[in-house]
Design a protein that fits this description.
Strand order of the largest sheet: 2-4-5-7-6
InterPro entries: CcmE, CcmE-like_sf, NA-bd_OB-fold
Low-confidence stretches: none
Keywords: Cell inner membrane, Cell membrane, Cytochrome c-type biogenesis, Heme, Iron, Membrane, Metal-binding, Signal-anchor, Transmembrane, Transmembrane helix
Shape: elongated
Mean pLDDT: 83
Number of domains: 2
Oligomer: single chain
Strand content: 25-35%
Number of strands: 7
CATH class of the largest domain: Mainly Beta
CATH architecture of the largest domain: Beta Barrel
Function: Heme chaperone required for the biogenesis of c-type cytochromes. Transiently binds heme delivered by CcmC and transfers the heme to apo-cytochromes in a process facilitated by CcmF and CcmH.
CATH topology of the largest domain: OB fold (Dihydrolipoamide Acetyltransferase, E2P)
Helix content: 25-40%
Membrane topology: Single-pass type II membrane protein
Protein name: Cytochrome c-type biogenesis protein CcmE
Radius of gyration: 23 Å
Largest sheet: 5 strands, mixed, barrel
Number of helices: 4
Length: 162
Amino acid sequence: MNPRRKKRLTLAVALIVGVSAIASLLLYALNSNLNLFFTPTEIIHGKKDTGVMPEVGQRIRVGGMVTIGSMVRDPESLHVEFAIHDISGGEIIVTYDDLLPDLFREGQGIVAQGVLSAPGVLQATEVLAKHDENYMPPEVAEAMGQTHEKLDYNQEQKSGGY
């Protein structure tokens, strides 16, 4: 092999290795920053179509209804713990260490984003509350359309009381 061909071959191999390394790093970064949406039932039993269950330590988003009577606040800090459920019977615990949204209340639909700290326990970094009767994030609407019935709120809940 003459030196010119050898140089071209070396350059081509180096280019292929470099592009492969960049593609691998890009896919790894995208995979680690991916927030998958789950319902409480899917966290417990896995997704219906694939059976995929989130792993402890994985960043996820969870949507469901706050279980009435489940909210426990720590009087010494901002720490709050509550359960969310769906109509299929799945229920998980969500812990949160910040201020809850003004529209957050029991019986309300929410989306919580965070890390699964134990099976069935989400350490939330963000909690979003549904802000009116009609709006809902698309993935929550899809999941709730399959597994939730419209709830009737009593007057105390409509006025923002717990």
